[in-house]
Write a sequence for this structure.
């Protein structure tokens, strides 16, 4: 069975994120991110090197978990959680990535602190099935 472009792009983004954020394999990550990567995030310096340098500056405990992922043509949107990266609370992020020729070429994000059960007006966790347990 042939995969659609959307299925291939979702798989690519999940592999790329795991390779960089969880495995911290920068040499392998270079295969996923274009050398001409365009960064729109307010939290990350320009280009692929800006992203890689940010990850290198974070504690090795950083963990990325993906949740809902959707794709339309060359765009992939993934809802995920960044945890154990040196701040008192996790980040919930929606990352929007544009793919071209099998590499990530452009990125936007929306990030917010993950709410505890006490902080949540909806009573539902922002990510997954349970609320985070902060110390």
């Amino acid at each position: 069975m042939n995969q659609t472009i959307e299925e291939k792009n979702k798989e690519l983004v999940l592999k790329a994120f795991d390779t960089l954020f969880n495995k911290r394999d920068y040499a392998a990550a270079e295969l996923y991110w274009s050398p001409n990567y365009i960064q729109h995030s307010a939290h990350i310096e320009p280009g692929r090197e800006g992203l890689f340098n940010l990850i290198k500056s974070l504690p090795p405990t950083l963990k990325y978990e993906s949740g809902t992922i959707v794709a339309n043509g060359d765009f992939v949107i993934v809802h995920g959680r960044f945890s154990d990266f040196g701040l008192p609370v996790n980040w919930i992020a929606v990352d929007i990535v544009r793919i071209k020729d099998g590499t990530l070429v452009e990125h936007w994000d929306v990030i917010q602190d993950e709410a505890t059960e006490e902080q949540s007006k909806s009573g539902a966790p922002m990510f997954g099935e349970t609320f985070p347990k902060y110390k």
Observations:
- The first strand starts at residue 33 and ends at 39.
